[in-house]
Every structure is written in C-alpha cells, then in structure tokens.
Amino acid sequence: MKYTLNSYWKVFWKFRSIHAMRTFEYRKNFFFWAVVATMWTLFNIFFYKILYQHTTTVGGWGEYQLYTLVGLYTMFDAIIWSVLSHSMKYYTRDIYSGEFSNLLTKPINTVFLIFTRYNNYNNLPRFVIGVGLTIWSLLQLGAAPTPLSLMLALLAIGLGLIWISAVWLCISTLAFYVEKLDNINEVFPALRRIYSYPASIYTNTLHLVLTTVIPLGLITTLPAETLHGHLSLTSFAWLLVSTLIAVVSAALFFRFSIKRYAGVAN
Amino acid sequence: MKKYLYRIKLSIMISFWHRSELLLWLFLDAIPIVIMFFVWQSIYSTKEMIESISLPEMLQYYLLVLVITNITGSHFESFRVEQIRMGKIDFFLLKPFGFLAEIFWTHIGGKLLYLVLALPFLAALIYLLSQYFPVSMINAPLAVWLVFGALLLFGFLVEYLLGLIIVLLGFWFEGSEGLEHFKWISISLFSGAMIPIALLPEWLQSASYALPLQYMYGVPINILLDGAVSSDISLLPPVFFICFLILLVTLLWRKAVHTYASSGG
Q1: B100 is a domain residue
Q2: Where are the domains of chain A?
Q3: Residue B114: inside a domain, yes or no?
Q4: Strand, helix or coil at A114?
Q5: Which of A177, A206, B28, B218 has the greatest number of beta carbons closer than 10 A?
Q6: Residue A111: pLDDT above 60?
Q7: Which domain holds residue B142?
Q8: Is A26 part of the contact surface with chain B (CB cutoff 8 Å)?
Q9: What are the chain A neighbours of B29 within 8 Å (beta carbons)?
Q10: pLDDT at residue B12 in the model
C-alpha cells in the first residue's frame, strides 16, 4: 500500500489521540507533572526577574525585551519536553534493545515514525505560559508586530524547531556506534541553556560559533528580535541555510547508520 | 564492616562500567555555570560592583557552586522509587543488609568514583576558564578549609537524606520521584546555589537566612571567599537539621516496611 500525505496526516493524529487517551487515563500523573513543569517555568522567570533587580540590561536587552525571548524559550522548551525528548528517548532505547526493527519494517517513513509516535501533554501549561509571556512582554514594550514580522517570527521558530530536531537526531543516531551511553539524549537539553539568553551575551569567538557554525544562539534571539521589529535578514538567511544543512546531514547520517543496526526476531 | 566495603567496591565497579556516561554528565553539568559566566560578564560590563560583589568574586562564587554540586549532589531517587514500585526490594528485607544500608553504601561507592573523575575535570575547567575570565585562586587559611569541608559533608548528607525521604515516600505515592524536582527547586532557591543570597529580594533573603539550606552553598562559599569564618556562623543549625532528617527517615522507614507488598520478587 502506498502511503500518501493524507495517510501520514491520519497516522500523525492517530498517535496524538492515543497519547491523549493515555494522558486522561492517568489524570493525576498529568496534573502532577503539569505542576512540576509550571513550577520550573515560574522558577526560571523569577530568576530573570531577580537579575533585572540589579541591572537594566543583559547583553544589551532590556527587561521586557528579554521576557519576549524567555517566552519563546519556554515555548521551545515545552515542545522539546513534550515531543522531542520522548521521541529520541524511545529511539535510542529501541536501538539498544534491538526493537528498532519494529520501526524499520513498517510501510511508512522511519524518521516520521521516530518523531511522531510518542509525545505527552504534561508541558501544555508551559507552552501557554510561554505564549502568554511573549504577548505580555510585547504589550509592555508597546511593540505591535506587523503581519510580515509576525509571519517571519513564526517561520524562524519553525526553522529553529527543525534545526533542533535534525541536530538531536544526529546526536541520538550515535547510539548505533556507542554502547552504554543512555544519557546521550541529555546532550541537547543541556545545550538548550545557550539560547535561554540573547546571543549578544556571548563574546568573541564563541559568539561567532553560536551564530554561524552551531547557530544555537539564533534559535530564540532571531524570532524575538523579529517581533521587536529588528529583523536581521542575514541571520535569517543563515538560519535557513543551517537548517537545510542540518536536515540533509541528519538524513544522510541516519541512512548510513542504520546499516550498522542488528536486531533479531522481535 | 567487610560487607559495606564490599558494597562500595561493587558500586565503584558498576559505576566504572558507566564511566562514559559519568564523563558526559560532568561536561553537561558544567554548561549552565559557564553560561552564567557570560551572563554576569555582560551584566558587569555596565557596573563595577553589585551589592558589594565584584565580577571576579561572582565568577568564583559560581565556580564553587559547580564544585559543591559535584561533591554533594545525589541522583538515586528515580531508580530506587522504581525498585520499590516494582517490588524489587524483598532481598533487602530478608538479608542482614538493609535497603537503607544498600542505598547509602552504593551512593558512597558511586560518589567516590565520580569524584575521581570530577576533580581533574573541574581542575582543567577552572584552569581553562581562568584564561578567559578574571578568576583567581582561592587563598584561605586551613581552619577555613576545615569548616568548608565540614559544610560540604553537611551538604552531602542533606542531599542524601532528602533523596532518601523522597525514595521512602515511594512506598505510599506512585510518582514520588517527581518530588525530586521540588528538592532541586528548594535547594536552588534557598541555599544560594541559583544566585548569592545577598542578591535575592528581601522577603526571600529572610526565608533563606531562616532555613538551614544556606549552609549547603551560601555559607561555605562566603567563608571561603572572605577567607575567614565569621563569628555569626554557628554549626548548630546544620547539626540539628541533619538530626531532624535522620529522625524523619527512621520514622518513615519503620512505617514503610509495613506497607510494602510484593510477590515472587
């Protein structure tokens, strides 16, 4: 049977509904982890609030400008913990346990399955807080993004998410080569702290690296600046190119690596 | 004693098997602190002092936070709660080597190996950072180092005992490992690990100074940076706090064994 785009769409939503049912089956668990996620988010925001009690700018960013960035960071974080972290955890677990064959033998794109088959909804409040904080900060700044800048900001967020997914896939694919490295999926969550601050705090070579070679610095800075009305077309173009490079590299690396996979009869 | 030494040896061997993971954790744990260096460098670019703390002092503060976290931190909660939930602790209830002893000596063994790996890593990191940031070596008298060591021991015991309380709550609550996050947030907020206590808002400062958690980070770092132990500092609150936690663990354990049920474990 040939899988069309429509079939992928249906499979995607089927997974979402299965996980929604699972969430409501364990409601207490959902509420507990939602509280934990909210607590961390508020804790982070509180930390930035304390910083601004002792300074007026961080890396040239005023308090409300930084809150736009923090709002975006919170949204990225919600998606990372709801989707990517789970997807990658099960991906590497399947490689180590030999159950990855279950995915390879399905008549659907394996990478699509890797990224869509797991998610949870515990970070939904975190996402809502992120959206709320971004809007609130823009209102405080009196910034009214034009439809074009809003569209470009959303595009930058999308590119950032694709870049993160591709890079994370590359990191997790290392599981085909290394054994006993269960915390390989902790690499990206640790690196994400880099874009929890504006790229301008990093100086000299590191700034260059984080905005070009590994454009982690652009992930939140670029959409935030776009929403503030300071669109940098060069940075935007570079994020687009970097994302394309990351996606192609991840696809090639994945294809090359699955040849090393060995699993039997499960 | 022989059985405890054997447990430590076994724990070191198991941890050594996971050495690449441990090395990766060391690297990953250092990232937030290095980022904080850039944040504070950026903030200090517009002023010399913040609440009478200079940039070198602030950077030293965060380096010491990293060192203390590596020495005192504990992360055994999730695994142990899962053991309880899955009914895998029968063995320790039947043999003359209790579950609490198993957790403690395994933790000690794992921590010893971790420190063997962490100390050279931290020394290399501090050297590397000192090439780019104004970080100088700490010069304090022996007496100060001894008090610092005692407070490190306190921090280690607090982390361990709070972790143990979370594990023991696993006898009653399914998702008790989630309480680990409450532990991290409370310690970050009230101990001075997130930011020096002097920079907190007044209401939070009062709460931090009233709680013994300040003896985990804030107090030991300050005495080391000042190079002297202030006469205001008393070691009695940490001692009482440890006694309180031990009492709580003992009570919880006595109740917990009566609630435990498993079959064929």
Answers
A1: yes
A2: 5-260
A3: yes
A4: helix
A5: B218
A6: yes
A7: 2-259
A8: no
A9: 190
A10: 87
Number of domains in chain B: 1
Give, as one character, the DSSP assignment of residue A200.
Answer: G
Q: How many CB pairs under 8 A join A and B?
A: 86
Q: Out of A206-210, B76-80, B235-239, which region has the weakest mean confidence (pLDDT)? A: B76-80
Residue A40 forms contact with B (CB below 8 Å)? yes
**Interchain contact, B201 vs A32, CB within 8 Å:** no
Least Cα distance to A118 among A83, A162, A74, A170 occurs for: A83
User: Residues with Cβ < 8 Å from B135, sequence gap 6 or more?
Assistant: B56, B59, B60, B63, B126, B129
> Is B265 a member of any domain?
no
User: Are B39 and A47 in contact (CB < 8 Å)?
Assistant: no
Kindly determine whether residue B199 and residue A54, on different chains, have CB atoms separated by under 8 Å. Answer: yes
- CA A177 to chain B, closest CA, distance in angstroms equals 13
Classify residue B250: in a domain, yes or no. yes
Average pLDDT, integer, range B149-174 = 92
* Minimal CA separation from B89 to chain A, in Å: 24
A55-60 contact pairs (CB < 8 A, 24+) = A55/B43, A55/B46, A55/B47, A55/B50, A56/B46, A57/B46, A58/A197, A58/A198, A58/A201, A58/B39, A58/B42, A58/B43, A59/A197, A59/A198, A59/A199, A59/A200, A59/A201, A59/B39, A59/B42, A60/A198, A60/A200
CB proximity A45 to B under 8 Å: no
Q: Is the pLDDT of residue B192 over 60?
A: yes
